[in-house]
Here is the input.
Amino acid sequence: MTTNHASSSAYRYEERQTYLCRVWKEKILPNWDEKKHSRKLRDLVFEGIPPSVRGEVWKRIIGNPLKVTPELYSILCEQAKKSRKDFEKLTSEIAIADGDVGGSGGTVEQLYSRERSAQKSINLDLPRTFPELTFFHVESSPLQGQLRELLEAYVCFRPDIGYTQGMSYLAAGLLLYMDPCDAFISFCNLLHRSCFLSFFSMKLPDVQIYLQTHQRLFKSELLVLYEHFERIRIEPEMYMVGWIMSAYCRALPLDVVFRVWDGFILDGDAYLFRTALGILKYFEDTLLKSSFEECAFLLSHIPQDHIISDVLFQKIRSLSGVSKKRFKHIYHKCEKEMSQWNGEYFQASWKQQQQK
Amino acid sequence: MSSQSKSITPLSKYKLVFLGDQAVGKTSIITRFMYDKFDNNYQATIGIDFLSKTMYLEDRTVRLQLWDTAGQERFRSLIPSYIRDSSVAVIVYDVTNRASFLSVNRWLEEVKNERGEDVILVLVGNKTDQTERRQVSTEEGEAKAKEYGIMFMETSAKAGFNVKALFRKIASVLPGMENVPEPTNMQMVDIKLNSNTETTTTSESNQTQRCRC
Here is the structure.
């Protein structure tokens, strides 16, 4: 009986997916300009974009305001290749210079400090991105090569930002649905228009404004849990940094992650922060009964097997107070307060110095 | 309030923060200690991860709260908030990677700038199982620890070498040796959170004085 029920609901799900694919392919994509701001499109996106059209839809929604061309991408790839060769040369120089274990001459130290580069970080993180998906894990796999290329090209494109841990997840996710060049263009534009740029460059005042925004929304949407966290001293740095910077790849099961990205790509930062509150709401009952240790553990090790995707998205949907507009409003308020606070702080310390 | 705190003996809790360059094995050491296992496919830690474990020592029981951090230099701006009220900072390097050893100075300075002498520092050289690839000798590690007057140990999370010993050694120098609380169950912990933090800080300063032997 139950198996019958399960198989029939699986069948209904399949049927629905086939229908959604057809709608996207026949109704939406061919009439993009007319549909792109429609209610219908929003509803379809929040139902989850079918994997077979996901890449195309993401690409179109993200667009390319930065006007990154395929030519630029291939130029950047060439540059990246060159700096990779330099890096490999440097590594072998170190190996030669550092023949004896005890040696710590100045030049070797200098070589090492240069070795602490984006290149090195990327090398270390490639096999550690989605280790459960073997096609990123294995060194010889084409996807790992594409991931390396994309990240290295971005370092050449924005040397002021470089590579930050977490970027590899976002890039890998895009590569699963797009060809390398489109993935790169989408990656640059997505970073450019979102909180990712602040988080990845780890500029503290900017990150703090986002965390403060989260706190305000948290307080207004889930007051009881917010107060519990205040009492037991769970701070947003403990979970939000990891959640946002891995674009939830470390927190949620992959199928859920990409559905979250659907919403994020359409609605921007607001949806990322709404998802955080959705997760908190999902585990609200457990968290309310838990101590500091239990909460801190749960938030950094979300029991992914226990997440029922539809229930989670229901929770996210129910947080209607976290709209795009309201998010922006609160963000700007926090930004203003932060700069005011900084201003007062500097004024006070300046006065102190004067008095000295 | 005071009669209550006498009747319930809290489990002493200590915050240990793990610092060190990317991929030196911070998560591996913690996982070996927590679950006695090793996995070749770790995900990079982004932000911070939290785990806790009760350790039963001969004379007392302690609760260790382990904070596992991201190693990339970029995340350093977050470090001060992570080490604010920690009892111990464990600085890990990879013995097969000299660059990670050279970074140790900066990690140490970072902690000292933030916490002064208020925190127990431990230097750990990990991955000793990879003897062929070793770039930092045991003597160098020892010398560095001596230079800073801190504890030192070499481990291999992969082989399970010295990891338990490391935590036992850390536990043996934790502040608050004078009170010997009984093991309690977890629910009691959060009732006592505030008063417990107070006792930790006061006994910590005693310890710092005693520790300068």
